[in-house]
Amino acid sequence: MDPQHIFKKKNNILIGMIHLSPLLSLRGFEGLKKTTENALRDLCALEAAGFDGALIENENDKPHTEFATPAQIASFTTIAQAVRKKATIPIGVQMMLNDWKSSFSIAKVVGAKFTRLDVFVDHVTSRWGEIHPNPREIMNYKKEIFPELLLLTDIQVKHKTMLTPRPLAASARLAITHGSNGLVITGEATGKETPIAKLREIRAAFPKVPIFVGAGIRKENILEQLSVANGAIVGTSIKTKNMVDVKKAKTLRQMLQISKKH
Fold first, then answer.
1. Domains of the chain, earliest start first
2. Mean pLDDT, to the nearest integer, of 49-61?
3. Which of 174, 189, 166 shows the shortest CA–CA distance to 133?
4. CB-based contacts of 261: which residues, under 8 Å, 6+ apart?
5. What whole-number distance in Å separates Cα of residue 211 and Cα of residue 163?
6. Would you give the distance in Å from CA 11 to the centre of its chain?
7. CA angle 207-158-23, nearest 5°?
8. What is the β-pairing status of strands 13-19 and 114-117?
9. Is it true that the peptide bond before 63 is cis, omega within 30 degrees of 0?
10. 211 in helix, strand or coil?
11. Cβ atoms of 183 and 209 closer than 8 Å
12. What's phi and psi for 93, nearest 5 deg?
């Protein structure tokens, strides 16, 4: 599976984040109706801004846990189904923190086209604990339940520390070998710019592999970053009070359109 097959383009792919408010059983849960309405509002804003896809994520379920509860999975599925039915752009789903089984399963049930996995081949630690992924197990389950699903995987992801440090390119090679359809590169944290040196390193090592910027895209750096990467997953810079701001989102898209004309 290639991102171009899903997004109908090879470069300048913009995926906007739909960050759900806390789900069922979590503190701050506002009800399925309200949460769904907010998600649909974000979808409309991303579509109006000309984004190429939308990724639904339960970022606000705190504290993060590696695997979700049944209540989270049920409510996420209900909301994602409503969004996918209304969408005119490809929809992705990601169950935080790293619940690949839930992400793959929800994607299959609702008809989502892609997912993102924060930890695929790297053994990491964070304030939420250690994660020791088994990429063979992950890919076997994907093959069993939804082989056509586009899988974008982070390497040495933000907010986490490698338990055994190694070069970024080594993690990239492992991810590609195990079946990643696109590499997601980030900096240190959400909203923090992804170092251009990281993007250039991976592009030089793997010139034909799809690369996505996973954090810190804004109007001041989008042209430079997407001169190297094929696309970006964008959240913080297009939000106002945790909701997608259509004017901010349009500004990013327009930056790319202006660059094409020149």
1. 3-261 (3.20.20.70)
2. 96
3. 174
4. none
5. 24
6. 16
7. 120
8. unpaired
9. yes
10. strand
11. yes
12. -135, 145
pLDDT above 70: residue 259 = no
Closest C-alpha among 99, 93, 18 to residue 51: 18
Structure confidence by residue, pLDDT tens digits, 197-255: 999 999 999 999 999 999 999 999 999 999 999 999 999 999 999 899 999 999 999 99
169 token code pair: 């390119």
Alpha helix (H) residue ranges in 49-188: 70-86, 100-110, 135-145, 168-177
- What six digits make up the tokens of 117? 């996995």
- Strands, sheet with 124-126, edge to edge from the N-terminal-most edge strand: 129-131, 124-126, 161-162
Instruction: Determine which helix (DSSP H) or strand (DSSP E) holds 219, and give its type and residue range.
Output: none
56 by Cβ neighbours in 10 Å (0-12 / 13-18 / 19+) ranks as: buried
b/e 10-23 (16+ beta carbons within 10 angstroms → b): eebbbbbbbbbbbb
For residue 179, the 8-state DSSP code is T
Mean pLDDT over each residue of the chain, to the nearest integer? 94
| Count of helix runs (H) and strand runs (E) in the chain | 9, 13
Helix (H) or strand (E) holding 122: none
Number of CB atoms found within 10 A of residue 100's CB = 26
- Give the number of other CB atoms < 10 A from CB of residue 145: 14
Classified as helix, coil or strand, 79 is helix
CA distance 39 to 110: 15
pTM of the predicted structure, to 2 decimals: 0.95
The token duo for 102 is 């839930």
